[in-house]
Amino acid sequence: MTAMPLDQLVEALRGGVISLLSDGGGGDWHVGGAELLDCPEALGTNAPGHLLLAVGLDIADRDALSLALRTAADHSCALAVKCSTPPPPEVSAQVARTGVPVLAVDPQVPWTRVQRLITTILTARAAVAEPGGGTTGGDLFSLANAVAGIVGGAVAIMDTQQVVVAYSSLPDQPIDETRRRGILGRRVPEDALADHLNREVWVSDTVVRQHRPGDLPRTAVVIRAGEDVLGSLWVAFPDEAAAADCGPTLQEAARVAALHMLALRRQVDAEQESRDRALRHALEGRSAQGDPPGGVRLPAVLVGLAEAAGARGSEESWEAGTAARRRAALLRTLDLAVLDGRSLGYEPAAALLDDRVYVLLPAAGSGSVSTGVLLDHLVDRVRHSLHRSFTAVDSPTVGTTSALIAARRDIDAALDHLREQCAGPGAYHAEDLRPELVLRRLVGAVREDAELRTGIAERLRAHDAEHATDHCATLLAYLRHFGDVAAASAELHIHQNTLRLRLRRAEQLFGVSLADPTRRLLLTLELTALAGLSEPPTPG
Question: Sign of dihedral through CA atoms 201, 203, 207, 208?
Fold first, then answer.
């Protein structure tokens, strides 16, 4: 990201978010990023020129404030603290003595939101500064301020995911509650979405005027690059008269904004591709040159999605459809997962491996919704948008690459289990399925390793094949129902006396001991391992 003059950053973050406590005695201070001041030793060599966010610092604690100021000074950084303005005189004096630029953050604004605001502003500035990819006239925030100064209203620029990517911050500009909440939350408030998504706005080639009850009057214009819609530019005016005759200015502003947003999109897409590649390599157990430093972002939650069992009987089924159609549906699902994750405050990574989509949701995301809610939303979105039913399974939070690989194994096993059980589409948690996953691994080990089998199940199966009996099915049903003769006979559709006769016959012929708990356990595992196999395991 490109470093930004401190005064410009403060100007961009106005609107009740941040203010300047001390400019550090003047000088050419620039900010190149934001880091949490939770461990001074972890700042390393990348901190100079950063804004240190003093999370958890109580400015009333003079010793703690002194340490934070000294850390910022040692690393040539600015410092941000939670502080109402104006601060107590003793705090102002302590700050002024250090020569460190200090910013005051509104105590009601979460640190995660502050960090995201700063990162967004710096990313937008970096995008328009790329050689050959930028435009003149500064970044989107500068554009918003310039337009606001010309038309006399408060400007906000949104992308197609209803995220506020830039806004004006001129003194005395008109503001209402919807704008205030939109800027603080970095997205269009829920109760204003219907007006924001009004079809008239998005299909028009000119500006559209709207006046929502309780809000200031607004004028909107769509930001386009050719036929591609990139976002929208909105202006709030103090009254209806002020909104007149600004159409040409806003249309020109939308054309300039399109150049900035295209550059920003190129950078965001490149970063997304880098994250996706790192996730794919990590899940495959390898790393590759060109992956981002540190690989995937951890800690995080891994999500796996596969088409639900019931969906395969449709006209657009996996068996009936072409391979190209199947892959296209999976790729669209992957895109939806990334878009939904971004719009809800995450920076996801996604990968398509075999016939499954994997999405990594960093735990450090500033999403206002939980990963569980996001997962439910994604499954529902895929069903309505793509007319496909998916089963999704998420892992607990993982903090290492090895734990990530293990999480994929768990998710794959859970998706296999849910398909075998013909479970309905929806979101599931790997931890809730832990007993089933352990049983699958136990059965798999018994199936593959002859030393883990007594051999009695193979003998029962061979006898059934030779004499057309049903000892295997009878015993397995009986064991699964914990010796409940009524339930087991109902499952097999036979009389209870017939079941009892078969059990006695198995005991006589093969020495089956149903009274011994150890033998019951081993027999259950061996019979389960044999179930569904066309050929028994090799005894060898």
Answer: negative
- Mark 100-122 as b/e (b = at least 16 C-beta within 10 Å): bbbbbbbeebebbbbbbbbebbb
How far CA 233 is from CA of 119, 314, 403, in Å, comes to 21, 43, 44
| pTM > 0.70: yes or no | no
pLDDT digits (tens, 9 = 90+) for 358-379: 999 987 654 556 778 878 888 8
Q: What is d(CA 158, CA 167) in angstroms, rounded to the nearest whole number?
A: 9
pLDDT in tens, 110-140: 776 677 667 656 655 544 444 333 333 347 8
Is-contact 531 524, C-beta < 8 A?
no
Asked if residues 117 and 17 have their Cβ atoms less than 8 Å apart, the reply is: yes
Q: Which two tokens stand for residue 530?
A: 């044999």
Nearest to 360 by CA among 293, 298, 273: 298
